[in-house]
Amino acid sequence: MHLIPVQYYICTIFSNIDKVIEIFKQEFNAKDFGKVTNFLGMEISRENGKLMIKQTKFINKIFEKFNMTEFKKVDTPMELNFQAEQNQEDIKVPYRQLIGSLLYVATITRPDIMFPVSYLSRTLDKPPQATWKAAKRIVRYLMATKDIGLIYTVSSNNLISYSDSDWARDKIDRKSTSGNIVLYGSNVVSWFSKKQGCVSTAEAEYAASIQDLVHLKEINKDFASFEDTTLLVDNKSAICMAKTF
């Protein structure tokens, strides 16, 4: 992993191929600062051909900032079937700051908390007591799992996308939430959890999954020899839609 400033931007390149690094230097007049071990709250290490990324120190800062170092740890990031109730009295707490910190962790290294963080981010303006408590539960879960991160190894060039959605789980508008994770060989490279924009589960699940996969497929063509792309869903309607193209 190399740290390369590109004009006014800084990007990280996950590659041991000198040719890729040279292309960035020539195309963007970039400078190579060499292998990086810390970058924007990420801790990067290498061992036996594996690249490991975690955010232990950043998570510790969250504990301290929100005075939760002494709270009891939990084994799950959210209670089963949790629903944010409407018309509850909102409270004045640093909810937006906490969700922002958790969203950064979820986006960078922790797909396991992507759903609860995304769900709780829907009530940023006036959070009730229940959602504040649910947000602190995610922090308590991170206390027990702060050393968990992502591991990358050399693998095949095929892309595999897993997609699913709940069924009209939101009690207010009956819209579903879609979840997706994409693997490059055995390595997790993309994930998301978001509320669907329409009531049709099949249409939303198919559209959300295929857009991300097509984007990654084109990137894969530029940087590696193309092998295969697979989208795995369990929605029969979505499967029929895919077969028509």
UniProtKB/TrEMBL annotation:
A Pfam family this chain is assigned to: RVT_2
Reverse transcriptase Ty1/copia-type domain boundaries: 16-79
Name of the featured protein: Reverse transcriptase Ty1/copia-type domain-containing protein
